[in-house]
């Protein structure tokens, strides 16, 4: 099974660029989008020819902001928006259950706006992990994908020294990913590729950052260790344009 996650930074803008054409060739089983910035009725149709049997949208209450969307060829037995975590109704979570697996499509908050927003991000992190851990105790394997808005290690961004005091690379944010891994979750890209460098998923629109590959790896697939034997591959599709992020993905037996 091929699972793809992509922060599109505006689904209508990406559609206008015909930037979903790759989906037909790649034919993922699950496609998770973040930052769609649209209500369900505003999403252009069709985006691609590839057929998905399930489609779910979680739009933010604030129009033109945030939001998540999932497409799937798998029959989801349950889908939830985890409102108790995303209590500000920013459309940041889609939680899908199928068989013994819970898949999370998440657009984690950005902490750069203010101290209050950073505190909100950290609480979101904490509440989210508590929720996934409760599901693990019920016997669920966990897949977490999306824009985590934090680069974990110095090799996950081009200029770590210059960004030590920037939200997205603060020690307190990176410590949450440490905690996630300590709890038995696996960074699938690092698990497959080790300490490969210059592998990024987001680039600023300014200063030709993408052309020069001055980026950050802030988009992830994490899986709980129970699913490790099923993992086959992990990858970054850095050649796909249309957003300031590129898609990331895994191949896994489900």
From TrEMBL:
Transmembrane segments: none annotated. Gene3D superfamilies: Endonuclease/exonuclease/phosphatase. GO terms for molecular function: DNA binding; DNA-(apurinic or apyrimidinic site) endonuclease activity; double-stranded DNA 3'-5' DNA exonuclease activity; metal ion binding; phosphoric diester hydrolase activity. Keywords: Hydrolase, Magnesium, Manganese, Metal-binding. Its cofactor is Mn(2+); Mg(2+). Probably binds two magnesium or manganese ions per subunit. The gene is exoA. The record marks 245 as: Interaction with DNA substrate. The record marks 149 as: Transition state stabilizer. Its EC number is 3.1.11.2. It comes from Sulfurospirillum multivorans (strain DM 12446 / JCM 15788 / NBRC 109480). Signal peptide: none annotated. Coiled coil: none annotated. This is Exodeoxyribonuclease III. Mg(2+) binds at residues 7, 35, 147, 149, 244-245. The active site is at 107, 147 (proton donor/acceptor), 245 (proton acceptor). PROSITE patterns: AP_NUCLEASE_F1_2 (PS00727), AP_NUCLEASE_F1_4 (PS51435).
């Amino acid at each position: 099974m091929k699972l793809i996650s992509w922060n599109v930074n505006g689904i209508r803008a990406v559609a206008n660029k015909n930037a979903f054409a790759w989906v037909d060739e790649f034919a993922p089983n699950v496609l998770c989008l973040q930052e769609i910035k649209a209500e369900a009725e505003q999403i252009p149709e069709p985006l691609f020819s590839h057929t998905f049997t399930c489609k779910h949208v979680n739009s933010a209450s604030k129009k033109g902001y945030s939001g998540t969307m999932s497409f799937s060829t798998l029959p989801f037995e349950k889908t939830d928006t985890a409102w108790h975590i995303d209590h500000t109704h920013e459309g940041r979570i889609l939680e899908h259950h199928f068989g013994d697996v819970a898949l999370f499509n998440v657009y984690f908050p950005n902490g750069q706006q203010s101290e209050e927003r950073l505190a909100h991000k950290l609480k979101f992190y904490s509440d989210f992990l508590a929720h996934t851990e409760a599901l693990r105790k019920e016997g669920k394997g966990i897949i977490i994908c999306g824009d985590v808005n934090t680069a974990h290690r110095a090799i996950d961004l081009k200029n770590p020294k210059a960004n030590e005091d920037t939200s997205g690379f603060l020690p307190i944010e990176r410590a949450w990913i440490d905690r996630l891994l300590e709890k038995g979750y696996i960074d699938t890209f690092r698990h497959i590729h080790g300490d490969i460098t210059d592998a990024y998923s987001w680039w600023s629109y300014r200063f030709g950052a993408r052309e020069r590959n001055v980026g950050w790896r802030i988009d992830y697939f994490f899986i709980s260790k129970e699913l490790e034997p099923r993992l086959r591959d992990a990858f970054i599709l850095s050649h796909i344009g249309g957003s300031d992020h590129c898609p990331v993905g895994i191949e896994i037996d489900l």
